Every structure is written in structure tokens, then in C-alpha cells.
Amino acid sequence: MARQRSQGTSRAARARTGRPGPPPLPRYERVMVVTAHPDDAEFGAAGTVARFVRQGAEVTYVIVTNGNKGSSDRAMTPERLAGIRESEQREAARTLGVARVEFLGYDDGEVEDTRALRLDVARQLRKWRPDLVITQNPHRTYNLYASHRDHRITAGVVLDCVYPLARDHLAFPELMPEYEPHKVREVYLMQWERPHLVVDITETMALKLAALACHRSQFDDFAAVEARVRERSAALGKAHGLTYAEAFDRIQLPR
Ligand SMILES: [Zn+2]
């Protein structure tokens, strides 16, 4: 599917470079990215996040697990790994200009669709009141890394919290009066197969890679990771005439 027609062409970018720049993204005051693990946001959406930050959006990250299983080092403990991954994620967020990172502290690999998690996610939505929420793909695909069970469950819970749990005052009465109901306007789901929305990240690719490189505990060979990320982003962009892209399904909620 073609990119959003409403995006138009950036005259400023064209004047600067002599080439058409990326079409502007829709404007949002507040954006929230909810992912299962430290590094998921960088893999799936960092180029887009950097563009929203450049457009003046305030971006909040919510990370559901502490990533305490993501190591092949036999001497590593879950406690030590959780601390390392939290500081790597904070550094990546700073690199992108993300305003804050909230960690929900669930165990890596054990995310379940529970009332406790729905309450925690609904609280974050009501607290930071994003116009746009970016999350993972709730569906099983045969891309096993992308459709990790923590990703699918996190994305499903986020959608349930966008509607109806963060929106309705009678859902989670214990959140009131501190956390008033909140209506999200739009959701982007990270998606590579026939996505609704392809975002040009050519100008923010370097920032995406710099943020991704902060997750040092996850990469023995960052050059190989960088090559894979460039290859996938280029493949996503190709059909749309873009050098690098990230892709999403887009859900707009009627007012
Ligand atoms: Zn993950």
C-alpha cells in the first residue's frame, strides 16, 4: 500500500539537499512506545521515534520486562543483566531524545496477559496521555524473532488498554482519581508484511544505529547487526523509492 497521501513533500528538505525530503509525519504532541524488551523499540521504531522527536513530540518509552534472560554468558546472573539492560536502554533513549523510560519490571520470557499487566499499562497511558502509541505486532508470524511471545502478548495488552481500559473510568477504579481516563488517537503496530504505513528513516538511520549500539550486552558483532538492519530497512523502503524505512500497521480511533 502507498504511503499516506497526506504526507506531501518537505519543501525545506528539498531546498537543503536539492532532493525531495521525507514527507512530514503526522504531528503528535505526545508519543508512547510500549515494547516487551530493552532494544525492541530501537529495532522496530527508532528511526520513526527520532523523526517524531525532531518534530517536537515528547516521547515516553514503556518497557514491560527487564530483559533479564537475554544473555549467552554463563557467568551472567538475571539480577546483574537487568541492571545492565536498564542502563543500556536509558542510554539509547537519550541518544534519540526520548524524554523518559518507564520500566514495568516483568521477567523476560514470562509476559502473560494478566490483570496486573493490564493495570500497569493502563496506568502508563493515563499518566503520560499519548496521542500516538507505537507497539509491537500482536499476531504470530513465521518471523520467530519478531513474533516472540512477549512481543505478541505485550502488543495485545496495549491494544486492550488503549480500548477500553485506559479510556473508561469504570475500568480499574483503583486508578482514580489520580489517573483520569485517556483517549489515544492512533496506534502504530510494528509490521513488515504489507504494512499500512512506510516511514522514511533515511535521515535518522544513523541515530537509529547509534541507539541500537547502546545495547552492548546484546551484540557480539555489532557490524553484522548493523548490516542486517540496513538490509531490512532498505528492503522495506525499496518499493516506495526510499533508501531506508520502518513500517507499521496504523489504527486510527474515531473521536
Ligand atoms: Zn524483544
Task: Report what the structure shows.
The protein has 255 residues and is α/β, with parallel strands linked by helices. It has a single domain (28-69, 77-252), classed as 3-Layer(aba) Sandwich (Rossmann fold). The protein has seven helices and seven strands; from the N terminus they run H-E-H-E-H-E-H-E-H-E-E-H-H-E. The chain has helices at residues 11-17, 40-54, 78-96, 115-128, 149-165, 205-213, 222-238, and strands spanning 30-35, 58-65, 100-106, 132-135, 186-190, 197-200, 245-252. A seven-stranded mixed β-sheet has the order 3-2-1-4-5-7-6, sandwiched between helices. Helix 3 (78-96) runs antiparallel to helix 6 (205-213) and helix 4 crosses helix 5 (149-165). The longest helix has 19 residues, at 78-96. The chain is globular, with a radius of gyration of 18 Å. It starts with 10 loop residues before the first helix and ends with a strand. Mean pLDDT is 92; it is low at 1-17. The site of zinc ion (ZN) has 5 residues, from loops.
Low-confidence stretches: 1-17
Mean pLDDT reading: 92
Give the names of the bound compounds.
zinc ion
Output the number of helix runs. 7
CATH homologous superfamily, by name? Answer: LmbE-like
Kindly report the CATH topology.
Rossmann fold
What overall form do the CA principal axes indicate? globular
Number of strands: 7
Distance between the termini: 25 Å
Largest β-sheet summary:
7 strands, mixed
**Radius of gyration in whole Å, from Cα?**
18 Å
Structural class: alpha/beta
CATH architecture: 3-Layer(aba) Sandwich
Strand content: 15-25%
Helical content class:
25-40%
Total of domains: 1
CATH class: Alpha Beta
Q: Main sheet: which strands, in order across?
A: 3-2-1-4-5-7-6
Helix-strand pattern, N to C? HEHEHEHEHEEHHE
